[in-house]
Write a structure and sequence with these properties.
Blueprint (H helix, E strand, L loop, with lengths): L7 H11 L11 H5 L27 E5 H4 L7 H5 L5 E3 L15 E3 L10 E5 L2 E2 L18 E8 L13 E7 L7 E9 L4 E11 L2 E12 L19 E13 L4 E15 L6 E15 L4 E18 L6 E7 L2 E11 L6 E21 L6 E24 L2 E23 L4 E6 L3 E17 L2 E12 L3 H5 L2 E3 L2 E4 L7 E15 L2 E22 L2 E23 L2 E15 L18 E9 L6 E9 L2 E2 L7 E2 L2 E13 L2 E8 L7 E5 L2 E4 L4 E8 L2
Parallel strand pairs: 4-7, 24-27
Antiparallel strand pairs: 1-6, 2-3, 4-5, 6-7, 8-9, 8-37, 9-10, 10-11, 11-12, 12-13, 13-14, 14-15, 14-16, 15-17, 16-17, 17-18, 18-19, 19-20, 19-21, 21-22, 22-25, 23-24, 25-26, 26-27, 27-28, 28-29, 29-30, 30-33, 31-32, 33-34, 34-37, 35-36
């Protein structure tokens, strides 16, 4: 078992930051905290947030989800919440209970095509992507701990912008007022699966601490259609937990310190008995936020992750590959300064650093005897250091944004080694170290045309490094083998967009954005033979489309809708010429959601969500099609007594057939009709 990078000493650090402050103030109960009067003028206020969003946030296509939406999804999982955002997409239609963890890539604007995330996902400013694979550990994110989610589409040039190729998803922890005292929930579904969550928020002097935990487990459903099941077919079992401790305290009247430690473990079984996978991780971060005249945000973090997976033959139903470990480490940090240099200007200057290293450890097995036939090791290190400068200039009703970012990225220590059972070399690749500089920019303008109409336009570029997984790790989704490629180069994005935000009446807000984005050197899994693919840089993937959203509230009734229509195609040449004009794999042309909500009285919430995803292709050659799917979800919260509520949830209420994988007619299915019943306290 891997040793956590943090131990009791790290946990003690988070507590000792705030613990000495307990004597400064009397403790408040949860109810007193929730209704506390406005603070005195000299009282120090800590929020646990980063700096306020820049003025330029409104220039780029941005969607903000509030807490009442985050904690009211039918599945209770963060990916379900994000599916309500126009343009959001996972690599597959499966959620984090019934997919391989390494396939949990997220992207925006149909710029997917492989399982690596092309969107930057941050939790309180810390990048969440796995250091080796680039996937997002979705099961490690407890929605109950979040206060807001802000999704910005389009290339980024600010902190950690080298990962924001398709956009940025910023998760912010809840403030004390959002989650005061104790919050708890427990639920069971019609298959006997369970979930339980607890969040304890405690005031410590003028600061606060939050301890949270979540545990989900169940037998799962059959992802294999009934007519394709065999005696070895297994349900998609899952057993996952996550825990975190976060402390926030003031150092001065304008500076606060935030510290967090967290751990998670996720075990799953997919398709066949013995096809087990695990992912686990530990992480710690510390952050200083200054809100004085010279605002600043300083952050440092460390992550330890591991992944393992057993591949089962679909003909003999015995193990053929034991990807037993993939330990990896990520470290990084950033510093951002907002100096008050010019009136009417919001200037941001900063730098950030990220380093990822890891090593694959796997054994190929004889499907008949189970003996080891080959031992494989692969790994390396990627680094990126970036400096950025950005300015928002406000001129009456016009806000202009301009930003520059320079990145030095390097790939070193790359290797792949395979030896047979006797230790004799079978294949060896020692990749030459390489490094380069790249410059990215973004610019845009927001014009307040009238009191109810905002017009915006923007252009930008972006960057993403290939992951260690893409460079050095081959993998098998039986019977298809995908080879790695140590010669992959960085992906580059260029694009522009125009849009408007319109509030025709007080109760309705409409946003529409038209965009044109192109990813050069897009990394994709390219078919090179029967049951054989190889990662390669395509000349480009181009995506043009329209995104729209509507939010309306009429008394006790609310309507929230989002849609994305995208015309995406591959630009192929040379070895990839056969792909020219094809739609990227796993990319739907149209996706939409509509949520109707009703709050008849305090504590009550009734909502239904209708979602549609159009057809998409499993592979780059467009030979295997995934049929469109339309689903209906429901959520009901009804107060029982005090702070206790009854919760009823329904996933895929109409029991729609959701095809998540189709390889030559071998099919996997998504979640069937699932009914949950539970209770909540304190929400």
């Amino acid at each position: 078992m891997s040793k956590p990078l943090f131990s009791l000493s790290a946990c003690t650090l988070a507590l000792t930051i705030a613990a000495p402050l307990v004597a400064q103030d009397g403790e408040l109960s949860a109810d007193e905290w929730a209704v506390e009067d406005e603070p005195a003028a000299d009282e120090i206020i800590v929020t646990g947030r980063g700096l306020d969003p820049a003025l330029s946030t409104g220039i780029y296509a941005t969607t903000t989800l509030e807490r009442e939406v985050i904690v009211a999804s039918a599945s209770g999982r963060i990916e379900d919440v994000l599916r309500g955002v126009a343009g959001f997409q996972q690599f597959r239609r499966s959620d984090s209970r019934s997919s391989n963890p390494s396939a949990q890539g997220v992207t925006l604007r149909a710029l997917g095509g492989n399982a690596t995330s092309r969107a930057l996902v941050l939790l309180d400013g810390v990048p969440l992507a796995d250091p080796f694979f680039g996937y997002i550990p979705l099961s490690a994110i407890a929605p109950e701990t979040l206060g807001t989610i802000r999704v910005t589409r389009g290339g980024g040039s600010g902190p950690f912008g080298a990962g924001a190729l398709a956009g940025t998803i910023e998760l912010e922890s809840a403030e004390p007022g959002d989650a005061a005292g104790f919050l708890g929930s427990a639920a069971v579904n019609d298959r006997g699966e369970t979930e339980a969550t607890g969040v304890l928020t405690q005031r410590l002097g003028r600061g606060f601490a939050v301890a949270s935990g979540r545990w989900d487990r169940g037998q799962g459903f059959f992802t294999t259609p009934a007519d394709q099941r065999v005696p070895a077919t297994a349900r998609a079992r899952f057993d996952s937990w996550n825990a975190a401790l976060r402390a926030v305290a003031p150092l001065t009247d304008v500076i606060e310190v935030q510290a967090r430690v967290a751990a998670f473990r996720d075990d799953r079984t997919l398709r066949f008995e013995g096809a087990d996978s695990f992912s686990r991780g530990e992480e710690a971060s510390i952050r200083l936020v200054g809100r004085g005249a010279w605002q600043f945000d300083a952050l440092a973090y460390v992550q330890a992750r591991d992944f393992g997976n057993v591949v089962i033959s679909s003909t003999r139903f015995t193990p053929t590959l034991d990807q037993r470990r993939t330990p990896s480490t990520g470290i990084g940090g950033k510093f951002e300064l907002r100096p008050p240099l010019l009136e009417g200007h919001d200037i941001r200057i900063g730098a950030d650093y990220r380093r990822s290293d890891g090593e694959l450890q796997e054994e190929a097995l004889n499907a008949v005897s189970g003996a080891i036939t080959e031992r494989r090791r692969a790994g390396g290190t990627t680094e990126n250091i970036g400096i950025f400068l950005e300015d928002d200039w406000q001129i009456g009703p016009l806000t202009i944004n301009g930003g520059l970012r320079a990145d030095r990225s390097s790939i070193t220590d790359g290797f792949y080694r395979a030896v047979n059972a006797n230790g004799a070399p079978v294949s060896t690749i020692i990749a030459a170290p390489r490094a380069d500089w790249s410059l990215n920019w973004r610019a845009g303008a927001l014009f307040y045309a009238t009191r109810r109409l905002d017009l915006r336009a923007a252009a930008y570029t972006g960057l993403r490094l290939p992951t260690l997984n893409e460079l050095y790790r081959p993998f098998v989704v039986f019977p298809v083998t995908t080879e790695a490629n140590a010669n992959l180069v960085n992906e580059r994005l260029q694009g522009f967009e125009i849009g408007f935000d319109w509030q025709p009446v007080n109760e309705i807000v409409i946003a529409v954005t038209a965009f044109d984005n192109e990813v050069e050197n897009a990394i994709a899994n390219v078919t090179i033979g029967p049951n054989l693919r190889r990662r390669a840089n395509l000349p480009a993937v181009k995506a043009q489309g329209i995104e729209g959203s509507v939010a309306a509230k009429f008394g006790k009734v609310s309507i929230d809708g989002a849609l994305a229509w995208t015309d995406a195609e591959v630009r192929g040449s040379g070895a990839s010429l056969a792909l020219d004009g094809n739609r990227p794999a796993q990319t739907p042309a149209f996706a939409a959601s509509l949520t109707l909500g009703w709050q008849p009285a305090p504590g009550w919430r009734v909502s239904g969500t209708l979602r549609h995803v159009s057809a998409q292709f499993e592979d780059d050659l467009e030979t295997d099609r995934l049929a469109p799917a339309t689903t209906l979800d429901a959520f009901i919260a009804a107060p029982l007594w005090g702070r206790m509520s009854l919760i009823a949830r329904a996933e895929n209420l109409t029991d729609e057939t959701i095809i998540t994988r189709n390889q030559g007619g071998s099919i996997d299915l998504g979640v069937p009709r699932t009914i949950w019943l539970g209770v909540r306290y304190g929400f």
